[in-house]
Write a structure and sequence with these properties.
It contains 2 helices and 30 strands. With 355 residues, it is mainly β. It has one domain. Strands 5, 6, 7, 8, 9, 10, 11, 12, 13, 16 and 17 form an 11-stranded antiparallel β-sheet that branches. Strands 25, 26, 27, 28, 29 and 30 form a 6-stranded antiparallel β-sheet that branches. A 5-stranded antiparallel β-sheet has the order 14-15-18-19-20, with no helix packed on it. The longest helix has 5 residues. It is rod-shaped.
């Protein structure tokens, strides 16, 4: 027999007893009718925006029990039998799927009913490029409608940019008009100490708030937003008299600064270089003033072979001393991490070194 569950189709077998005396099928209504198949597993690519994987319960004759037709009291349903497994994979937000284990699956005259719980399997989230585990949350489907739900999990922030840190996140899902499940909102909190230290970029971060956003480019790519402050701190062995040492005297304010592990897709939609709330000015090399205007996380910096870095931009101008003759205006040089100038007075800063 062929069973259709919306767009899913199964070829199954069942055993029935036909009574010649009553010219009818004999059914044990307490047991129902077992639907079997010779294959142990069946997989379907898409229903409600998820991948469906069925695994039947192995029986003594080496066939696999997938469903039971319930007939008792004329309450007809196709039900998930005890020992049979059904898992749903949400694949649009991560390399490894976010997987839900299903119980109480039933196909009724009004549609599909089920309850699903997220499994404790790590999933590397798109964009962030770190693995998160989700626990103690799930969703239900009633008559083909998925109730809005949120799953909670935890995992590391991109370590190349902020060092070792763990975030607790929440992902909110809803069913869109076409019936597919979609991600609608994210939230994040930094776990533990709010001071982060990245040895690679020499930056320390004091985090006041952590957010979680995403872009939809056919798949969902996630990124954090960081609000707080940053300060450059020399590591042992760094040149205390070098140009970068001057940056350490300035606190740099961050307001919803995007942070992710892979910006190749997100960078097409999100500006990673964020203007400071107020420019920061400090003395530079004795005869210049450096005005910082923007800062940004660089997940893959080409100049450093694809390693993470910090991008700081602004402008240099000659300092106005008492013996300086006024001209029509200050001389300024605008620099960024893309600058290729080789003059000592114009050096663009990416936090692993001066170019």
């Amino acid at each position: 027999m062929r069973l259709r569950v919306l767009s899913l189709s199964f070829d199954l077998r069942c055993r029935l007893t036909f009574s010649l005396g009553t010219f009818a099928l004999k059914v044990d209504h307490d047991q129902g009718i077992e639907l079997r198949a010779p294959e142990a597993e069946r997989e379907f690519p898409d229903l409600f925006g998820m991948r469906w994987r069925f695994k039947g319960k192995e029986l003594a004759d080496k066939s696999f029990h997938y469903f039971t037709i319930a007939t008792k009291d004329y309450h007809y349903q196709i039900q998930q039998p005890e020992g049979a497994m059904l898992e749903l994979d949400f694949t649009r937000a991560s390399e490894e799927p976010i997987t839900f284990s299903v119980r109480d699956f039933a196909l009724t005259p009004k549609g599909v009913n089920l309850a699903a719980t997220v499994t404790d399997r790590p999933a590397r989230l798109n964009g962030l490029r770190t693995r998160f585990r989700f626990t103690d949350s799930g969703f239900v489907i009633r008559e083909n409608r998925i109730a809005d739900f949120t799953i909670a999990g935890s995992g590391p922030l991109p370590p190349d940019l902020v060092g070792d840190a763990t975030a607790d996140i929440a992902l909110q899902f809803a069913q869109r008009e076409g019936g597919d499940l979609t991600l609608v909102q994210g939230a994040a909190n930094l776990r533990g100490v709010k001071l982060l230290d990245c040895k690679g970029t020499r930056f320390q971060f004091s985090v006041d708030a952590l957010g979680l956003r995403f872009v939809d480019d056919g798949a969902f790519h996630l990124y954090f937003t960081v609000t707080g402050s940053a300060r450059f701190v020399l590591a042992p062995g760094d040149d205390a008299d070098g140009p970068l040492a001057l940056l350490g005297k300035t606190r740099i304010d961050l307001v919803q600064c995007p942070l992710t592990g892979d910006a190749r897709v997100i960078g097409k939609h999100v500006k990673f270089l964020v203007e400071l709330p107020k420019p920061k000015t400090f003395n530079f090399l004795g005869c210049f003033e450096m005005e910082l205007r923007a800062i940004g996380f660089v997940p893959q910096c080409e100049f450093f072979g694809g390693d993470g870095a910090m991008q700081v931009t602004g402008q240099l101008r000659f300092a106005q001393g008492p013996a300086t003759r006024r001209t029509r205006g200050p001389t300024t040089t605008s620099c960024s991490s893309a600058c290729r100038c080789r003059a000592s007075s114009c050096r663009a800063s990416t936090s692993r070194g001066w170019r």
